[in-house]
Amino acid sequence: MGAAAESEMVVKQDFGVVAEVRRFVRLVSGQWGMDDFVPCLVASELVTNALRHASEEDGDVTLRLGRTEDDALWMEVQDATCELPHVQEADMISEVGRGLLIVEQLSRCWGVRPLANNAGKVVFAVIDRS
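The structure assignment produced for this chain is given below.
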């Protein structure tokens, strides 16, 4: 990870918990003196993607928040699926498929790293303070 994990939340396999994810991010970003709009939106997209592509057998999703050396927010979402995410071309009529495009536009950078032994992956994003 690009920073020490300072806060962690285990997210159960239920789309209803995404509101709890936003509350958690709002609380942590507020403690760090950051505006919460972008971090909440990015966390919602990353967690929703992880939940959408994981199955009950894959287990829970873990959200971790930390700060980088230059005081940006480091966010990562870990799940047990090995399928790597990618930005999709925007479709004007589809209700899905824009999450990573949003993450890409609002983050300094984002990426994905597979875990050893096909244990899943971590998707991360770095969000500037402003």
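Interim note for the steering committee: The longest strand covers residues 5-11. The domain at 5-127 is CATH 3.30.565.10 (Heat Shock Protein 90).
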